[in-house]
Structures are given as C-alpha cells and as structure tokens.
Specification:
The longest helix has about 35 residues. This protein has about 325 residues and is mainly α. The radius of gyration is 21 Å and the shape is globular.
Length: about 325
C-alpha cells in the first residue's frame, strides 16, 4: 500500500479511537450518577496504565511509540466500561496491560488480529469470574477504595441462561438502572453513541445490522424459556418471545458490543460482502456464548473466536470479484 494511503488510513483510525473516547464521556456520566466517582477513578487508572504500558511496550517493535495514537487508551476505556463498578483497580491494570501487550506483540496499531479490549476483558473474566460478573445495585454510592463490603447481585444473563426472564422494567433497561457492567446498561446512551459513530463514518451498517439481526432471530426461533418448546413454530407463543427479545436486546452487552466492538477498523473485514458474513458469524457466536454461559459480556469471547476469519473473508471476496470480472470479460469478448 502506498505510504500516502497508509497515512490516510492511520488518520482515519486515530479519529475512530478519539471518537470512542468521546463516547465514553456520557456513559461514564451515567455511571457517576448511579455509583458515584469510583467509575471515574477506574477509568483514570485504565488510561494511565494504557499510556505507560504503551510507552514501555511500543519500542519493542520497529514502529515504535506514536505519541498521538490513542488506541490503547480507547481499549482501556472499553475494558472499564465492561467491568462492574466495584471491580478492584488491580484487575483494571492487569486487563489493560494484556490489551496493550496483544496490540504491541503483533506490531502495534493496525496489525493485531484480535480486538485488544476483548482480549483484556476475557483475561479478567476467566481469571476473576466471581468479581467480574457480580454487580452493585444502581444507586449504591461506592467507596473510592476497596469495595469488597458492597452487596453485589448477578446480572440479567443468569436468569436468561436458566430459562427465566429478568424482572427489570423497560424504562430501567433504557436508562441503565439495572445491575450490570457499568457502561453497557444505559441503552439510550449507547444508541445515541451509535448514531454519533455512524454520522462520523465509524459504524459500519454492513457489520452491525447482520450482527443485530442474528442476535434477534436466533432467540426468536429457538427460545430458551422454561415451559416453552425450543423447536416450537415461530408464530406460536408470540407474547413470551416478545418478552424474551426485550431482554435479549436491552440487557447484557449485546448492543454495546455491536456499537463499540464489532466495527473496530483493524479487526473487522475491509470489504462490504465480507463484513456482512463477519456480522452474521459474530451474531451466531455471541448468541451461543450468551445463552450457554453466565457471562454478560459473551460478545468479547465471540470476537476472539471470529477474529481469525476477517482476512480470509477479504481474500475470498477479492477472489470472487476477480472471477466475476473475468466471466464478464469472457462474455464481452464472446459477443465481439
């Protein structure tokens, strides 16, 4: 790729990461409203850790450290937003360092095959599951220090996995007044951030729409509800399916993953056809992880699973386009 095009591409990526950081502001404001200043301090710890880790790790590869490249800070912010507001600061540090190491191990910004924020969160989730998937009740003003004495509760995904339905009202789901990851619950704010990213050209509908469609269609066709046949006809038990879809859409990290994780410019495919397939596969994987595990943020594990396919999808798309062009040329030459 010509150097001028590389600079343009990197400039677009930098803009994406700055916009991600900008979108974190309203989400952190909602967290401050529900939990006090502790989430803000968690974010500061993550940002400082990302900066220091970037400065230390970047010189290990040829590209070196770029002072105005904010991807590590953006990954740290996303990791914090997927954590409980009561998570210890050392988990924030460990998860952020893992994200930066994954990024720098493959050559720095623009070269990593897996979403670094997903890697960091997955490491924290597998290492401290009891801490990462128990949440304080909104309205609890958390202490700035250790929050071990705070009463915690499980998220909505525990009820869904067990075949039940959470009891949270629609308004509470929309405004984030539910127990869950501190940045993943305020659905109205997440949708507003998604609209902003779309206007800025960062939200790729070719990826997001297939992802969301699969996350909706699979639970409708195969509802996991107690007393409801899994293989029942999709036009039966409509009321129960609608209630299930409400919690599928408005709880957990499904929408958060589609808005903030699925369209990462380095890890998603470059071609439109490839993005459609990528979104479909990501939706299937995210739904499986969500309904067969207690992880509220199963989309992170889905991202790691499908992270091996984008480059292959782009190559397959290029090959298909080339063959289509050759067939057109053969027909044109045949007519002549």
């Amino acid at each position: 790729m010509p150097k001028r095009h590389e600079k343009i591409k990197k400039s677009e990526n930098y803009s994406y990461y700055w916009d991600i950081l900008f979108c974190c502001v309203p989400l952190m404001a909602m967290s401050y409203f529900y939990y006090g200043p502790r989430p803000i301090l968690m974010l500061i710890v993550g940002l400082v850790t990302a900066y220091v880790a970037d400065c230390v790790a970047a010189p290990l590869h040829g590209a070196g450290y770029h002072s105005h490249e904010p991807s590590s800070e953006a990954f740290a912010a996303l990791i914090v937003l997927m954590m409980p507001a009561s998570a210890p600061y050392y988990i924030v540090v460990v998860a952020t360092i893992m994200a930066v190491l994954v990024k720098e191990a493959f050559g720095g910004e623009g070269h990593y095959p897996f979403h670094p924020a997903a890697v960091g969160h997955a490491v924290a989730a597998l290492s401290w599951p009891s801490v990462m998937f128990n949440y304080p009740t909104p309205g609890t003003k958390l202490p700035l220090g250790n929050a071990v004495d705070v009463a915690l509760t499980s998220g909505s995904n525990v009820s869904l996995v067990a075949g039940g339905l959470p009891s949270d009202s629609t308004m509470n789901l929309l405004t984030g007044n539910v127990a869950g990851p501190l940045g993943c619950c305020a659905i109205l704010v997440i949708l507003a951030c998604g609209l902003y990213l779309y206007v800025r050209g960062h939200l790729q509908l070719a990826t997001v729409l297939p992802y969301v469609a699969v996350c909706i269609v699979l639970p409708w066709l195969f509802p996991q509800l107690n007393g409801l046949p899994v293989l029942s006809a999709p036009w039966t038990y409509v009321r129960q399916r609608v209630y299930l879809e409400k919690y599928v859409l408005l709880s957990g990290a499904m929408l958060f993953g589609g808005v903030f994780l699925a369209c990462e410019p380095v890890t998603q495919p470059n071609r439109r056809a490839s993005r459609v397939i990528y979104g479909l596969v990501l939706g299937v994987a995210a739904t499986i992880f969500r309904f067969f595990s207690t992880y509220e943020t199963g989309v992170c594990f889905a991202l790691l699973l499908v992270g091996a396919f984008p480059e292959w999808l782009d190559r397959a798309a290029r090959r298909a386009e080339r063959m289509k062009f050759m067939r057109k040329e053969e027909k044109r030459l045949g007519r002549e």
